[in-house]
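job 3f2a | input accepted
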Amino acid sequence: MAKSAAAHIHRSMTMSEKIIYFDNASTTFPKPESVYKVCDSVLRSAGNPGRGAHRLAYNSSRQIFEARECLADFLGVADGHRLVFTAGCTQSINLVLTGLIGAQKLRAGDRVLVTSFEHNAVMRSLACHEGHDGIEVVQVPAGPDGNLVDLAALRRISSESPKPALAVFTRASNVTGALLDIETVSRMLEDADIPLLIDAAQSAGFVRDDLSHLTGVTYFAASGHKGLYGPPGIGILYVRSQNFELDPPYCGGTGSRSDSLAMPTFLPDRLEPGTHGVQLAAGLAEGVRYVLDHGPEAMLARARSLVDYFLFKTIDIDAIEIKGRRVDRDRLVASLTAAGLMPGEAQTGSILSGSSLAASLSSQSSQPSKPSQPSQSSALPSSASPASGLTAEAAANSAAAADTAITSSSSSSSSSSLQKRRMTSEMSREPQYLPVVVFSYRGLTADRVADWLDTGYGIAIRAGLHCAVSAHKVLNSEKTGLARVSFSSFNTKEDVDQLVQALQDLSRMPA
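job 3f2a | predicted structure (511 res):
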């Protein structure tokens, strides 16, 4: 038995070394080498944090404290105690929903707003409470051009009486990659006095939201194993108010106030019973440091250029239909020309090639990185959009310039011009995207395409409904599902070339 298990592990490791991985929206792979190392190191020397005065317990407590402070700095949170470590984003979401119901802040008949693109981490959790606790889930219609929310509809629903008790919105669709206009949405809900829970499972790390400016975000949930490059099994929950009203859904030891059988009333202890996964917290912090060292704006710009390269290379494969975003050939040509990636042009020194990947990312290690301003255009600067195709260094510099311009504009504008900008920001416009693409393949199911790529070429993608059937209803793909390709900073131009070649081979197969 032991020999068989060892052989299976060896086989899995061998397979992972050969695989071309495009399923980063599920979990990023590989992780930075430093994440593997710190998880192993901490696990070999971990005591129980907060449960002893000996050096192993102290060192583990220090790891938890430093990880919490690292995440707080990344998110612009002044008080790290407002950040709760969880088992993942799904648990973070459930802590809020169950906690609000336990505290009688969500009651039978209360309405909870969601987008049309929510993951089952939200929809199943709400469906459970809808059936057991009598809350009502209200879906805000999607906006035009791929936007997650119709802002006019949201404004209308938010002003209805009685007002909704809570909004639970994804920061980014795990199906299309479209990003929520978080500044406009959070401000609108804040004006209506509606608490907002953001599901940032997909966006955290790819986008660096500054929660000190996004005052309309009441709760912020994120997973550690995706864009933050941490290990599986850990997530975070940010709770804005010091006078928070969340009942703990489960109780236990915390290492604090042990003389009382009541759970502590303060964060994070109230929502963190039991022993921490110290190695998970340390690994997550190391993943965040990796993102900070290389610059989230530059990493996103690079991954978006890979998306543009994929879209351009597949635009003439008739069997492929891209879903959820517009594909404009002229825009792609401009983007790829700027990046030096147009097929037929010299590729020397391209930041998307495997040979120059390490150098292009390492060039960012000396660039200071700060949380973005809250507007969608600054959280994902236009200078780092798919159309730019910038090098890592240029993307970081342009992002800094965009931040400076926005800050300067904000400080000098009058209240009337601010109102005008707000009205303009609520007008329909095409959303920004994470490096995620979904497509259908004429004549084949998404599962068949994924199996073809995996077994024939060692390429991993995701197929199906992606745990987000409501998003597929918007795309009219709920019966068939879609194939999804999602990128990380470890993907290269050569990876995309091999993926496109495999899809071209598939198109030549007899029906």
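job 3f2a | The longest helix spans residues 55-75.
job 3f2a | closed
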